[in-house]
Specification:
The protein is of the alpha/beta class and 438 residues long. The chain has helices at 59-62, 107-114, 129-137, 173-181, 197-217, 222-246, 269-288, 315-321, 332-353, 411-420, and strands at 10-15, 18-23, 47-52, 68-69, 87-93, 146-149, 294-298, 356-357, 360-361, 366-371, 385-390, 401-404, 427-428, 435-436. It folds into two domains: 1-26 and 194-247, no CATH class; 31-189 and 256-436, 3-Layer(aba) Sandwich (Alkaline Phosphatase, subunit A), CATH 3.40.720.
Length: 438
């Protein structure tokens, strides 16, 4: 007899004699071996983040001429002056296309984050790097990860489980503040804190329906089992997050920030910079309060919509329309956005590096992947993608190096990051992009 499941099928359980139901949804060179501890001997949590900017750079003006430690700072990396000992520059890592076409502004970022070359624009053939890491280090916090986009444009997030499952970005400082530090935030310094009974009930309800999942699994085909497993995984993560909210972490550096002033968002450069800086401050507070250990920052999208106030032509369009100045050797107007992006990246790193935590700084416990989807945007080049790593990941990663990839696939970077953060992987990527630990 054919087994069927009605579209109204639910997961059921019993809670205090009452039925509970929830509907179903239709590079080894960097690795160290020591950690950073708190002054009292407790171990600080390790964090991972990404910081993305669109439309790349000018390779000859961005790539250091010296390798190893104390590398030089070309003009397009000059903003790193003072924080370069905390930042490693990885040049010359690119994408092996496996016979597929280079999809402008998509192939480069997906190869960096998923280890695969997509066949079509919008395809995400494997989970992005941050979601893999969040499954390892992000399950014990209130938010598995936090995504922010500085241009005020919804939908700009490269954090994805698959083509259809996107971790949406928050685009407004006030929205971000409300999400993290609103009614759901339990201040560990508030001695009057008591768990909300509704939170306790929600946790119990989730536990009850998870038990019913075993009964349902036996009636599903392999594809539906996979979909159900994804859904149950999200329920388990939600239950873990609720557990955290019942017993908030009491980290010494945690302090609830003040509500941001105003919410003037937009894609003109000055607004984007201001939005980025405010949301970066809120993100720092969230990390210090251990609300999340994984984050993704989009300063500008791959097809960069940044523009200067009073102008009609955006950064991306400039990369194609503006001629390369014969004397300068680059596009002067488009390059202004490269310099602004690198200044914003340096500001972000500097904020982490100047925030005290334990015996060191917040950056000491972070590993942040700074990257773009192309090198020279005018030609959509994915050879020599600009990649940087900031932070020591709790002493697991060496900092302040320039390493030349010499054409190696960018997947070696993602493999090294995963190993540094404790994932049990010895290879990553597909086909010619696949790389194994040496």
């Amino acid at each position: 007899m054919k087994r069927t499941i009605d579209r109204r099928t639910v997961l059921r359980g019993m809670l205090g004699g009452t039925a509970v139901a929830i509907g179903l949804p239709l590079l080894e060179i960097f690795l160290n071996d020591h950690g950073t501890a708190l002054a009292d001997g407790g171990v600080l949590p390790v964090r991972f983040g990404t910081w993305f900017w669109g439309c790349g750079m000018n390779p000859e003006r961005w790539t250091p001429s010296t390798q190893g430690a104390a590398y030089d700072l070309p003009v397009e990396l000059a903003a790193l002056d003072g924080v370069s000992p905390n930042v490693s520059v990885l040049s010359g890592f690119g994408v092996t296309l496996d016979g597929r076409a280079n999809i402008p502004h998509w192939t480069g970022v997906m190869a960096t984050l998923t280890g695969t070359v997509p066949a079509r624009e919008g395809d995400v053939d494997a989970p992005t790097l941050d979601t893999l890491i969040a499954a390892r280090i992000g399950t014990g916090t209130r938010f598995r990860s936090i995504e922010i986009s500085a241009t005020g444009i919804p939908g700009q997030s490269y954090s994805r489980e698959s083509t259809s499952i996107v971790n949406a970005a928050t685009v407004s400082p006030l929205e971000l503040y409300a999400r993290i530090f609103g009614p759901g935030f339990a201040d560990p310094k508030d001695s009057s804190f008591e768990p909300d009974p509704r939170t306790l009930l929600r946790k119990s309800a989730l536990s009850a329906v998870l038990e019913d999942a075993k009964r349902l699994e036996g009636r599903l085909g392999s594809h539906d089992k996979q979909r159900l497993d994804q859904y149950l995984t999200s329920l388990r993560q939600l239950e873990q997050q609720i557990e955290v909210s019942l017993t908030p972490p009491n980290l010494e550096a945690c302090s609830k920030p003040t509500t941001p002033d105003g919410d003037d968002v937009g894609s003109d450069l000055e607004r984007t910079r201001a939005t980025h800086d405010v949301m970066a401050g809120l993100l720092v507070a969230a990390l210090l309060c251990d609300q999340t250990r994984v984050f993704n920052v989009t300063f500008s999208w791959g097809v960069s919509e940044l523009r200067k106030q009073g102008t009609d032509t955006a950064h991306h369009q400039l990369t194609h329309d503006e001629v390369v100045d014969a004397q300068l050797g680059y596009q002067p107007h488009a390059t202004e956005y490269v310099l602004a992006s690198m200044d914003a990246w340096a500001t972000f790193v500097r904020r982490l590096a100047s925030t005290p935590e334990g015996a060191g700084t917040l950056l000491d416990s972070c590993l942040v992947l700074g990257h773009s989807e192309s090198s020279f945007a005018k030609s959509h080049s994915i050879a020599g993608l600009p990649v940087m790593l900031a932070g020591a990941a709790g002493g697991r990663v060496k900092t302040g190096l320039h390493v030349a990839g010499n054409g190696e696939p960018v997947t070696r970077v993602g493999l090294t990051i995963q190993q540094a953060l404790g994932l049990a992987v010895d290879s990553w990527g597909t086909k010619a992009c696949r790389r194994r630990a040496r």
